[in-house]
Amino acid sequence: MSEEGLFSPVTVLKNVGAKRAALYEKLGIRTVGDLLRFYPRTYLDYTSPLPAAECPEEESCVIKGVVVRRFPPAPIRKGLVLYKLLANDGVSNFQVTIFNNEYAYYGMKAGEEYVFAGRFSKSGGRLQLAMSSYIEEKDAGVLRPVYNLTEGLSNGMVSSNMAEAVSRFAELLSDPMPREILREKELCQLRYAIENIHFPQGKEAYDIARRRLVFEEFFTLSLGLIRLRGRERSATAVRLSKVDLSPFETSLPFSLTGAQKKAINEILADMQKPYPMNRLLQGDVGSGKTMVAAAAAYATAKNGFQTAIMAPTEILAGQHAATFGKVLEPLGVRVCLLTGSLTPKQKAERKAAIAAGEFDVIAGTHALVQQSTEFCSLGLVVTDEQHRFGVEQRRLLAGKGDSPHSLVMSATPIPRTLALILYGDLDISVLDELPKGRQPVETLVIHSDKRERALHFIQEHLTEGEQAYIVCPLVEDSDSELLAATQYQERLARQLPGCTVGLLHGRMKPAEKDAVMTDFKANRIQLLVSTTVVEVGVDVPNATIMMVENAERFGLAQLHQLRGRVGRGKRRSYCILVSDNESEENRRRLSVMKNTSDGFVIAREDLKLRGSGDFFGNRQHGMPALAIADLLEDKDLFTEAQTTARTLLRTDPELKAPGHEAIGAVLTALFDQNKDGWN
Q: Which has more confidence, 618 or 483?
């Protein structure tokens, strides 16, 4: 058997035909090597069963007991049979309920002892366990893996396939980690780690395996971020002199928050240094990032340099141009807008004026990075909603000047460790304080049977001149029960004849999306049915209601971003989350949304509930997904891995030294898979 075996399709495994292979592909698993690196989500801990009387209600538990008797099967409806057993743990009787698993029911014998896993409850004094799995007592004392699944793929299927993959192919794994780092950090070999992450020989073996794999993941990621996204400490010609900001501050119709003042001071201090600033400005929706950027642009203009602000959409670029113009033009700072929708003549005139230095602040879209766009003296580059741009776009814009300063704005509040991973070597400023007077958005959680009441509530507010969003997870109808945006919009247009109902989704052309948002902002559209593309921040102060269908399909951070689209005016605003999912996890998630409006708290809870690997969804940030590391639990290990990566790159920046080629090859592979985000 050769190493090519790791690249063999999963169909080389028993019971994996085309149908199961297609299910694996939905999880990103195509080869045996992919499967081996598909780590368990959690484990069933059969090592420490609890007595039934001590199990917490409505939680997953493990109970050891002897089967006392079997009750007759009870067909509930077509295709569903309920099986029940009576068991005893030595102290108490408890009932075991088995859904549609004839094999398990008949496989367990009266008088034999088993270890049961499932959700525990008490009803009328009766102890009950809705069984998810079981093992014979003689096999107890182990940790059994539980994997993230897709419909049609059971945990038993994955475990069986994984056991074969580990047995046949684990020996083919070549360890990419440099030997000196394995020795220094006392890390186990890769083969041992893979074997014991899937089928731990015990808790100690599991801990050893996990520590190795987490360190490797953080180490590799840190190498990539430092090498491929790390800033260059080259000298800059844009070294600002100290500027008196009092004219800027006194011109504002409101007072800056303490967090805004702190961020402005950090930015201006950076811009007075001899090398380019690379700073992330992150803050909650409505925390005032734009005013911080405006202060930086004011200081830049007073030093004779230009500021470029790149936004992901024309309407957002226009919004920035209007906001910056309102604040800065009375102070003598000239602002303009450069977008692709200008006529050729307008673009040529605007570009000539920018090149001649007639404008100090230029807001725009991708038109800013076109070869024909030249700046007179570019000093500061501001990118909004950072995750919507590839690194290459930002690099091209920075190349329009002589090592200009860079300010990246993000409205996604995230823990500091995560920010360090996402943004590499960027310094971080945090706006964790909302301006005074901003009203919190009242959040309601409802079932779909209350949808019509919610729509009536929305209609009442529309008749009073307000506007609303309804967000759906899908664009078009499918076999799924999820509401499709297009069909929803058509239905509402019929249901609300006196209301103008618009539609916005990601498959529309940019010009079409901008036209819809322009009409919504101008109140020519009263109710906007949209997919999540609406989360990118256009201010519509008149929008007071956000209703999100199938809220369980969204991450907490995403729900918070969506909720931030309302509550931007003086009127009371609402966010209505529609979900029929009664799982414990979903109830916890939506409870967090209902009870807090602090984006940083929500982000931490999101990480706890979903895990780091799933935090970004579809790799929208371009970084490789975390497969096993937890950014909250493993933050100390991240710091250690990052320090180790820096030390290695100082001695071998190209990773060409003997023993370093393998980790270099891993980096290259990651780079190839994430070109948009790793340029």
A: 483
Nearest of 150, 125, 199, 156 to residue 21 by alpha carbon = 150
Per-residue pLDDT band for 616 (boundaries 50, 70, 90) equals very low
- For residues 520 and 21, give the distance between their C-alpha atoms in angstroms, rounded to a whole number: 45
Domain boundaries, the chain: 1-40+155-173, 48-140, 246-273+287-410, 442-596
| Main-chain phi, psi angles of 298, to 5 degrees | -60, -50
CA distance 521 to 474: 23
Class of domain 48-140: mainly beta
Amino acid at 606: D
* pLDDT higher than threshold 50 for residue 38: yes
pLDDT, tens only, 363-387: 998 778 778 889 999 999 998 765 5
Which amino acid is it at 614?
Answer: D
> Model-level pTM?
0.65
User: Is 246-273+287-410 a domain of CATH 1.10.357.10?
Assistant: no
Query: What percent of the residues of the chain are helix, what percent strand, and what percent coil, each to the nearest 5?
Result: 45, 20, 35
Residue corresponding to tokens 């539609």? 503
Cα 244 to chain centroid, rounded: 39
Q: What is the dihedral of CA 267, 271, 277, 281, to 10 degrees?
A: 20
- CATH number for region 442-596: 3.40.50.300
SS3 363: strand
CA–CA–CA angle 340, 343, 347 (5° rounding): 65
CB 397 within 8 A of CB 368: yes
Token digits for 205? 């073996």
Per the CB < 8 A criterion, the answer to whether 286 and 433 are in contact is: no
Beta bridge partners of 361: 307, 335
Cα radius of gyration (the chain):
29
- What's the one-letter identity of residue 636? D
What separation in angstroms does the CA of 89 have from each of 93, 123, 131, 213, 270? 7, 18, 15, 38, 66
3 state DSSP class of 213: helix
- Edge-first strand order for the sheet with 527-530 is 442-446, 574-578, 543-548, 467-471, 527-530, 501-504
The answer to whether residue 290 scores a pLDDT higher than 60 is yes
Q: In this predicted model, what pLDDT tens digit does every residue of 295-346 receive, in sequence order? A: 999 999 999 999 999 888 788 888 899 999 999 999 999 999 998 888 899 9
> Which alpha helices (H) appear in 522-595, and where do they start and end?
556-563, 584-595
Question: Which candidate, 593, 633, 591, places its Cα nearest to that of 613?
Answer: 633
Amino acid at 128: Q
CA distances from 141 to 62, 108, 135, 209, 527 (A): 11, 19, 10, 18, 57
Half-sphere CA count of 43, side-chain side, radius 13 A = 20
Tell me the CA end-to-end span of the chain in Å, nearest whole number.
37
Q: Do domains 1-40+155-173 and 48-140 have the same CATH topology?
A: no
Q: Are 121 and 81 in contact (CB under 8 A)?
A: no
Convert 148-167 to b/e letters by CB count within 10 Å (16 or more is b).
beeeebebebbbebbebbbe
Q: From CA 392, how far away is CA 639, in angstroms rounded?
A: 27
Amino acid at residue number 545: I
The burial class, CB within 10 Å (0-12 / 13-18 / 19+), for 109 is exposed
For CA atoms 181, 185, 186, 191, the dihedral sign is: negative
Residue 428: per-residue pLDDT: 83
CATH 1.10.150 fits 1-40+155-173, yes or no: yes
